[in-house]
Every structure is written in C-alpha cells, then in structure tokens.
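This follows on from our talk about sequence and fold. Please put the record directly below this note.
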Amino acid sequence: MDKRHTELSPQEQMARRESLYQFITEHPGLPLAEVITRTRKELLLTLEEMSRLTSVSVRVIHSIENQQANPTLATAEKLLKPFGLRMGVFR
C-alpha cells in the first residue's frame, strides 16, 4: 500500500473493492484505461505496487493510464485478473 496512506483494515479493503466493483458494474462501457486507473487509485496502490501484482511494467501501466498505449488482450487480462475482473464483449 502507498506509504502516504494509513493501512486499511481488511473490512475497509473489502469495502473499497465492493465499491469499485459496483461502480464498474454500473458503468459497463468504461474504457480500459479508466478501469485500470480507478482500480489502482481506489485500492490505494502505487504504480510500482500495481506492477508487482500484475507482472506488467510500470512504464506500460503508466502509458495505458494516460491513454498513450493500446494494450494487448493478454496485457489487459494481466492487469485485471488480480482484482477479480475480466474483459468482455457486451451488446
């Protein structure tokens, strides 16, 4: 967790995840960059922490968040899977 924040209790961590999942569910058309950024910030993760969790480089995550990169499906899945998320196609 980012050192600038106090450590969250397990209940607070779960509440943040549930809030994030609810937001994503209510907005199914969100761009991947926004989902990645919102996930990282809502869970109080630094780029380095997100990188360690997902095995995606800090540079790539930063580029995706700033909409300067278009990740492959494999990279998108690596960024979403640790948080219980996955990509999908909706009508």
